Amino acid sequence: MQMPELQTLEQYRAVYHDETVWLPIAREIARRHGSDPETLSRGPDGTHIVYFMADDLVLKLFSPLFGEDITSEFLVTPIVDGRLGVATPSVVARGRLADWSYLIATRVPGRSVRDVRDQLRGDELRAILGRVGEVIARLRSVPTAGLRVLSVDWSSFEREQLRRAPQRAAPPGLSLSAEDVHAFMRSVPRVPKARPPVLLLADITDEHVLVSDETGQLRMSGLVDFGDAFLGDRDYELVAPGLTLARGDRELLRALLAGAGYDVDADGDGLRRRLMAQTLIHRYATLLDCAELVDGAENATTLEELSEVFWPIA
Question: Is residue 125 included in any domain, yes or no?
């Protein structure tokens, strides 16, 4: 089958919603794997093309523009299967069409927190954050053998991200010169250099945390999407759930951190600074992206002030 030749992200985005391009491809893949091509339905928007298939399966189609995502998803999905205490996709099949790759996996039941947040009671949301923290704690014990391709030199990664920080989007009133960044980083307690890297999913967001009704309460039931995974410092994993799920709420944040095994009362100020440092070096989320999720962040004028809004631990 002829696959679209898309050389740039702009070309990809231009045809992302064009079903005349993707549906014939999805149907061909379904036929290859013995699934009824007439039952396909388009999945949620995201980076990749997703279709729901018969028998509670999901087809995920990867453009060659996102080579790192392909590697991460293919490696990590089977490794975390059955290890995190919540449902995650199980790989059913994988393949290629020309230079495009695809993955067929089981569909994880539930709805995203993003879709149901307005329906969640306070106690439900706290319990979900605590459960996310427990998942993160479990993730840190997942063996990393065979994942060397996902490793980075953390010191070099951190240094380059900090160098780029003043050029990335930030709230308009925030002072973010190179000196501002360096001054804040000098205040961050350093972690032991001997601490080994761990597997990071790096995208545990309100979109990817799934919940289901359990005896009248919405509880975390699943986790999906591992295309951003890599190996690195364990604190980095907290940025996505801390900002998209807790959103500056102290009790929710403390529930997340306690679930992940942090002693928030013993190390509140130091942990706040470490998490702000991880926010600064995040590969994809800018400070402006994060500030749009947290009430009051738009008023911060320094990184110190912003850290207190993003990470109100103490």
Answer: yes
Q: What is the mean pLDDT of residues 45-68?
A: 90
Local structure of 33: helix, strand or coil:
coil
CA 255 to chain centre: 19
* Strand, helix or coil for residue 181: helix
- The CA-CA-CA angle for residues 257, 261, 266, to 5°, reads 75
| CA distance linking residue 251 with residue 246, whole number of Å | 8
3-state DSSP call for residue 225? coil
Please state, in angstroms and as integers, the Cα–Cα distance from residue 55 to each residue in 23, 35, 61, 225, following that order: 18, 8, 18, 19
Phi-psi region of 44 (alpha: psi -120 to 50; beta: other; left: phi over 0): beta
State residue 195's pLDDT score.
83
153 pLDDT above the threshold of 80? yes
Residue 23, domain member (yes or no)? yes
Q: What is the 3-state secondary structure (H, E, C) of 59-121?
A: EEEECHHHHHHHHHHHHHHHHHCCCCCCECCCEEEEEEECCEEEEEEECCCCEEHHHHHHHCC
CATH number at residue 17: 3.30.200.20
Is the pLDDT at 193 greater than 80? The verdict is no
268 has pLDDT over 90: no
Whole-Å CA distances, 4 to 59, 78, 157: 18, 29, 33
